[in-house]
Each structure stands twice: as structure tokens, then as C-alpha cells.
Design brief:
137 residues, mainly alpha, 8 helices
Length: 137
């Protein structure tokens, strides 16, 4: 799975095949023709209402691929990973990394396409967080 270039139709087709759900059932659930369902498998993107229905049907959160993409390619400002003081209350905002994001980064490091320091700089991941991930593999 290439998290940089998401093709949602392929991802959906993969889950449909994994769960062996018939096109007839999908067609009834989505209230679409079989041809329209087949066209969705070829779609690079789709309406969020339709994607939400797919999530419900397949009991899988397809939105997480987009969240992972945002974490990697449009990270929040560095201030989100630092302590800030608000009205005598100490607040620490922490980014949440999905397993797909962790796997993507660890694979880049494992295959030598990127060093751990490169990942820390590019994706603004705290060093301690990255090294904890690396210890678990």
C-alpha cells in the first residue's frame, strides 16, 4: 500500500475480496447498480458519504488511510508536540500515529530508503517515539 498515493477503489476491492461479499449484496446496501459498484472499484477517490457506507458495510475505517497521509505529508506545526501553558494548566498535545503510518515509516528505515534521523526530521516524530517503535520490531 502506497500511503502517499491513495487509490481508495483498489483498497475497497481488496476488502470486498477478502470478505467475499457478493456484488448483489453490495449493490443493495449502497442502493447502486452493479455497474456503478464496479466503477467504484476503479475510482481513485469518492464522495465521503459513499465511503462512509463502505466503512459500515465492510466494518473497516478507510478514512484512516487519509489520516495517515496527513500525518506524514502535512504534519501539524511543531508547537503541537511541545508543552504549552494555558491558565495555570499544563497542556501537552500529542500526535496519534496509526499502525499503517508506523509500518510505512519503519519499512522505509528497514529497507534503507531513509535513516531514523531522516524520519525524525521529515515527519517531525520525536526521537524517543521512533526508537520505541523500532525496538518493538
Amino acid at each position: 500500500m502506497n500511503i502517499k498515493d491513495i487509490h481508495i477503489g483498489n483498497l475497497i476491492r481488496s476488502k470486498v475480496e477478502e470478505y467475499q461479499i457478493s456484488i448483489e449484496r453490495i449493490s443493495r446496501f449502497l442502493n447502486r447498480t452493479e455497474d456503478e459498484v464496479e466503477m467504484m472499484f476503479h475510482a481513485k477517490s469518492m464522495d465521503t458519504d459513499v465511503l462512509l457506507k463502505w466503512c459500515k458495510l465492510l466494518k473497516f475505517d478507510f478514512f484512516r488511510f487519509y489520516t495517515g497521509h496527513l500525518i506524514l505529508y502535512a504534519p501539524q506545526a511543531r508547537i503541537d508536540n511541545e508543552f504549552t501553558q494555558k491558565n495555570d494548566t499544563l497542556v501537552f498535545r500529542k500526535s496519534i500515529y496509526t499502525q499503517e503510518v508506523k509500518d510505512f515509516i519503519l519499512d522505509k528505515i528497514k529497507t534503507g530508503k531513509m535513516t531514523a534521523n531522516d524520519a525524525v526530521k521529515r515527519y517531525k516524530i520525536p526521537k524517543t517515539t521512533l526508537y520505541k517503535w523500532m525496538k518493538k520490531i
